Amino acid sequence: MRVPWVWKMKDTKTVDILLSTHNGEAYLEPLLNSIINQTYHHWRLIIRDDGSQDNTREILRAFKEKYPDKIILIVEEIRNIGVVPSYSMLLDLSTSDYVMLCDQDDVWLPQKIEHSVNAISR
Fold first, then answer.
1. pLDDT tens for residues 68-79?
2. In angstroms, rounded to a whole number, what is the distance separating the alpha carbons of residues 60 and 26?
3. Most exposed residue of 2, 66, 97, 122, measured as fewest CB within 10 angstroms of its CB?
4. Residues in the chain with pLDDT < 70?
5. How far apart are CA 77 and CA 34, in angstroms?
6. Which residues are CB-contacts of 102 (< 8 A; sequence separation ≥ 6)?
7. How open is the CA angle 66-94-77, to the nearest 5 degrees?
């Protein structure tokens, strides 16, 4: 499976943020809001759910609907493969200059991506 689009901005480093979820409804809204509110704007979030049985998928769909240009939601019938294979699948989909991984219970500081890209680009 390929992500729906490949994007590049001239002279701007792009970042794919990869997120694998599983029954994370208690954590997702703070995480997703912290990513949406980043000071660095040249990113996209690629999410794969690993068979959640709570409201995780509904939360993800709502954010995808609200931010369709920033969030890619991978919907597959393959479920419960585990965190490592799930992230491996996400890595295969990335086409950006840089990749950042996040856990569903993270909350990112507003300048996390900006500081990371600046540090790596030196």
1. 999 999 988 788
2. 12
3. 122
4. 1-11
5. 28
6. 17, 18, 19, 31, 35, 108
7. 70
